[in-house]
Write a structure and sequence with these properties.
Helix content: 40-55%
Number of strands: 5
Radius of gyration: 29 Å
Distance between the termini: 100 Å
Shape: flat
Order of helices and strands: HHEEEHHEEHHHHHHHHH
Number of helices: 13
CATH architecture of the largest domain: Orthogonal Bundle
Strand order of the largest sheet: 3-5-4
Length: about 325
């Protein structure tokens, strides 16, 4: 029997069983995804503040780009819970004070402490043997964070049995039929571009949901993901993470934020954008490792001379200068 076309060649969401057993499936998914982005920033050598790496996003962006299978309120509730338990650290390192976007990191020591406490309580429970039997293979083993360095797949991927019943708890009444014809992640990227454009200029012309122009923007975003740039190799589409990074970068760049004002223009200029973004990141890396100046290893020395020594040095210098001028 043929499988659903939505499940073909799709990878399941793999939830770490130790995390899920200790904190819950939803919380485990969030912890793993935040950990993934922290590892990405670690490898890129960015967002390292106060002896740890950070990642930032609004709850709306977390929901639309990372957890579109949950509602906004669900994502907000999970983040608040993990923050209150001390697992997620939250701060604000934005350059603009009015920007309230939260930065997140993971307190791995606190996480291990809570997991160890959970294991001890479970081991001392009267029904410990029966409860721990299904998890006997590695239940008490230390969590291998290296194995968690994987992003969650797109929402239209197959979901494992443990989380197959997760569904958004609410639907927006103004959701258009256009949205339902495309993967939620593509719609979310389109909404991200629209939001960033209007953040830069509230008077910018952007399409409204349900209009033909809005549908065209989503189609261009989908083609960028599936086919890549216009006229390019159709097998080289851009990943969701790559498109998100390009949108955020171009809408912060002083030149490109005035030129990338539609999904079509984003796809048209994507190769140029990618090259300039990589060059800028590379230049920043070189600048970071570059010595402050050519005297960074200069060792200051103090020389002490007597008056007679200074007079002899001066006469010797003048004699050499007169000799050279005579030769000329």
């Amino acid at each position: 029997m043929a499988g659903s076309k939505h499940l073909l060649n799709k990878k399941p969401i793999v939830v770490d069983t130790d995390l899920a057993t200790c904190f819950g499936v939803n919380e485990a998914i969030v912890i793993q995804q935040v950990h993934y982005w922290l590892e990405v920033n670690k490898e890129a050598g960015k967002n390292y503040i106060n002896d740890r790496h950070w990642t930032y996003n609004t709850i709306a962006d977390w929901q639309s780009l990372n957890f579109p299978f949950w509602s906004y309120d669900t994502v907000k509730r999970i983040f608040s819970k993990l923050e209150s338990e001390g697992i997620l650290l939250a701060d604000n390192f934005n350059e603009m004070k009015r920007d309230r976007t939260k930065w997140y990191s993971i307190d791995y020591e606190k996480l291990d402490e809570l997991m160890e406490k959970h294991d001890n309580q479970k081991a001392n429970s009267p029904n410990a043997l029966g409860q721990s039997a299904p998890m006997s293979l590695g239940q008490n083993a230390p969590l291998d964070w290296g194995n968690l360095h994987q992003p969650l797949p797109e929402i239209n991927t197959e979901i494992t049995r443990e989380i197959k019943d997760i569904r958004p708890t609410s639907k927006k009444s103004d959701e258009s039929q256009v949205d339902k014809k495309h993967p939620p992640t593509i719609v979310a990227l389109t909404e991200l571009l629209i939001r960033k454009i209007t953040d830069n200029n509230p008077r910018a012309s952007v399409p409204e949901k349900g209009t033909s122009t809005y549908s065209k923007w989503i189609s261009e975003m989908e083609k960028l993901h599936r086919l890549g740039p216009i006229g390019g190799d159709s097998s080289k589409g851009y990943s969701i993470e790559e498109i998100k990074g390009l949108i955020l970068w171009c809408q912060e760049d002083s030149f490109w934020k005035n030129n990338i004002l539609s999904a079509g223009k984003l796809r048209e200029k994507v190769v140029m954008l990618e090259n300039q973004m990589k060059k800028q990141q590379s230049d920043k890396g070189v600048q970071k490792n570059k010595p402050p100046n050519r005297f960074h290893n200069f060792e200051a020395k103090t020389f002490e001379y007597t008056n007679d020594e200074l007079e002899n040095m001066l006469r010797h210098r003048q004699k050499n200068q007169w000799g050279r001028s005579g030769e000329e």
